[in-house]
Structure formats: structure tokens, C-alpha cells
Amino acid sequence: MTGPGSLRVRDAVDADLPTIQNIYAEHVLHGFGSFEELPPDLEEMRGRFENITRRGFPYLVAEEAGRILAFAYAAPYRPRPAYRHSVEDSVYVASDAQRRGCGRALLSSLIERMEHAGYRQMVAIVGDSGNAGSIELHRSLGFELRGQLNAVGFKHGRWVDVVILQRALGEGAQTPPNL
């Protein structure tokens, strides 16, 4: 899908960061998908981007007609060595681009890349148990609900839950990983 008006997923580049920062700031200021309360500035977002890409993890954007509509990335699930075969995904879609397939295209690409790289599990930590769009997106791509942490965050004047979903990548836990 690369024609005019069609959605395209590609690797993010430094020039995309102002738009990525704007999309993320919207989620920080108005949503519960991030538990940050103040949007990071462009330099902070650049540092985060470089930290992820320097370690070989994908950082992607979805664009249509030259406009970035969403971004996503995969990163280590946790820093301890035993978690090294598991990743966590993050997907953020501009408010005026939701329900247009951006999240699905990005998450599908992350899954494919992480499987190809040999990772075995992908975890999604979804802010707000009421975030039906993100929960359904993940479930539609094979993630299973693993649990919910109730009222672990307080944002915008209310308690916020966290929903945990997980998806096996490749052979998952059926065989030992290639060490």
C-alpha cells in the first residue's frame, strides 16, 4: 500500500520526531494510554527514540499522503537478563486517525519484526481498562488477557487501571530460545 491516500508503515526517522512528540503529547494531556502527566519535550523524545533504535528495536510510523498518523515501537519488556526474549509494544494513534487501521498496521509490523528477530513473547501494558480500542486491537492480533491491576495510577482526577495482555511470538514457550 504505497499509492496516494493509502496507509504506509515505515521506520521512523529523526525528522518524524516533532510529529511523534505531538501525537504523544496529545495522549499524555488528554488520555490514559500513558501515565506521564507532562508531555516530554522534543529533546527527551529524541533521546527515547535513539535509545530504542540504537539497541536494534523497531520504531515505526504509519503515514498516509505524507502525513504521520501514528507511531509504535517495541522495547525490552524488563531490564533483567531473564526477560531478554520478551518485548513490550507501544502504539499511539493521533485522535483524528483512530479506527482507520493505523494501529493494526503498526502492531502487525512490530509482531512480524520481533518474531523474525527471534523474540518469543510480546507484552502489552494498556493504560485504562476502559481503553476498548487498544484492548480489542491487541486481542484481534492474538494477544490474550493476562490480568488487570486496579487503580494503580491516578490521572486526570481519577484512578486508572492497567490491563496486561500477552502474545507468543514464533514458537513462544514451546521450545527453549536460541541463546
Describe the structure.
With 179 residues, the protein is α+β, with helices and mostly antiparallel strands. The protein contains four helices and seven strands; from the N terminus they run βααβββαβαββ. α1 crosses α2. The protein has a seven-stranded mixed sheet with strand order 1-2-3-4-5-7-6. The protein is globular and about 40 Å long. β2 and β3 form a beta hairpin. The model has no long low-confidence stretch (mean pLDDT 95).
Topology (SSEs and partners):
Blueprint: E1 7-11, H1 17-30, H2 42-54, E2 59-64, E3 67-76, E4 86-93, H3 102-116, E5 121-127, H4 132-140, E6 144-155, E7 158-168
Parallel strand pairs: 4-5
Antiparallel strand pairs: 1-2, 2-3, 3-4, 5-7, 6-7
Helix pairs in contact: 1-2
What would the average pLDDT be, to the nearest integer?
95
Unreliable segments of 5+ consecutive residues: none
Number of strands: 7
Q: Tell me, what's the shape?
A: globular
Terminal Cα separation, in Å?
A: 36 Å
Rg = 16 Å
Oligomer: single chain
Task: Name the features.
179 residues; 28% helix; 7-stranded mixed sheet; single chain; alpha+beta
Question: Would you kindly provide a brief summary of this structure?
Answer:
This protein has 179 residues and is of the alpha+beta class. Helix content is 28%, strand content 33%. A seven-stranded mixed beta sheet has the order 1-2-3-4-5-7-6.
